[in-house]
Write a structure and sequence with these properties.
Largest sheet: 5 strands, mixed
Shape: globular
């Protein structure tokens, strides 16, 4: 019926979905189910011509249909773990907002970062952790994406202008996993065993406790790459964040989980951060629905500690804030010499509130800076 009406208006009175109706001479009228139009001084074209007119009208209609534009474009790295985190973000947004549950409402945009491209050198030699976020931040500022999903431990302590990071999702397990084909723990590894890691934090803590072991620093690549190298015998063991293995459903590879006392985690380990433009109130509103405040406060405390120490990939630093059984914040911080010969630790306890936790992180950082003295991180 709708086809018939539109064709009446264009004087090509044919419906390709209905049976042909009797046609009278020019100047008559035609109606169907209450819809009518007049034909004045024009006879119908031949059947073949009428069919081509209908096809052309349908083609024009299809061409003028606009493709569905995503309401949110999520920017992420392309590693399996980064994509798992982006998909987790998308699923939670869809669950929280009905308009985002429609097909095509959320698009995931993969952005290759410098940190992903250069794998042959240690991060410290090519610019540090910001290399995993720089290109994504640029895409956000330029409007190519609407939000950016990061592993918080990869995010520098500064944020680029025009961006905010208002959301930390519920934190995963912060501990490190020990993985080996022939040893049940670090203590069981024979002297001279080689451990692969890209983290100075892990290297320094391993060598501090087990100086007879050897650590290969530039053991880089995604989780799958590192496990492949382990299986190929490049190293005898490796350490990976348990959070990443859990998000990838790969915990069957874990030989043992290290306690916080044995291996203090990286600042913000296990936490996902989501950034948006500072002037984008709609995205900030969406992200507010995903924010886990307990995680956000803990990460803020740890990053205040890191900022005070001016930490980088050349600096072995660890920090962890958690809520104790009384609801207070317990913070533990650590700095180490790169070779693991010296490790300095401290702790703080106070109210689980943003201002108090920032002060705890800063104060702990100042204490360790004072105790470490000049040249400590160059040893």
């Amino acid at each position: 019926m709708e086809t018939l009406t539109s064709l009446c208006a264009s004087q090509a009175l044919v419906s390709h979905t209905a049976r042909p109706m009797p046609i009278s001479a020019a100047g008559s009228s035609i109606s169907a189910k209450g819809y009518a139009c007049s034909i004045k001084s024009r006879a119908f074209p031949p059947r073949k011509q009428r069919a081509s007119v209908v096809k052309a009208a349908v083609a024009v209609e299809q061409q003028t249909e606009k493709p569905k534009v995503a309401l949110i474009r999520i920017g992420t790295r392309g590693s399996p773990l980064a994509l798992a985190q982006a998909h987790e973000t998308r699923e939670k947004l869809m669950a929280a907002h009905s308009e985002l549950a429609e097909e095509g409402a959320i698009e995931i945009v993969i952005i290759k970062t410098t940190g992903d491209k250069i794998l042959s050198q240690p991060l410290a030699d090519i610019g540090g952790k910001g290399l995993f976020t720089k290109e994504i931040d640029e895409a956000l500022i330029n409007g190519d994406i609407d939000i950016a999903v990061h592993s918080m431990k990869d995010v520098p302590t500064y944020l680029p202008e025009q961006t905010i990071l208002p959301c930390n999702m519920d934190r995963e397990d912060v501990r490190d996993a020990f993985i080996s084909l022939n040893a049940s723990s670090l203590a069981d590894l024979p002297a001279g065993s080689i451990i692969g890691t890209a983290s100075l934090r892990r290297k320094s803590q391993i060598l501090h406790r087990y100086p007879s072991l050897k650590v290969v620093e530039n053991f880089r690549g995604n989780v799958q790459t590192r496990l492949r190298k382990l299986n190929e015998g490049v190293v005898h063991a490796t350490l990976l964040a348990l959070a990443g293995l859990r998000r990838l459903n790969m915990t069957e590879n874990v030989t043992a989980t290290l306690s916080i006392d044995d291996m203090l985690p990286a600042v913000a380990q296990g936490a996902i951060g989501i950034a948006c433009r500072s002037n984008d109130d709609k995205m900030a509103e969406y992200l507010a629905s995903l924010n886990h405040e307990e995680t956000r406060l803990a990460v803020t405390c740890e990053r205040a500690f890191l900022l005070t120490l001016d930490g980088s990939c050349r600096t072995p630093i660890a920090g962890y804030a958690s809520r104790d059984e009384n609801g207070d914040c317990l913070f533990k911080g650590l700095v180490a010499s790169p070779d693991g010969t010296r490790v300095l630790e401290t702790s703080r306890k106070g109210p689980y509130a943003i201002d108090d936790m920032i002060l705890m992180g800063k104060d702990a950082g100042k204490e360790l800076l004072s105790r470490a003295g000049p040249g400590f991180f160059n040893s």
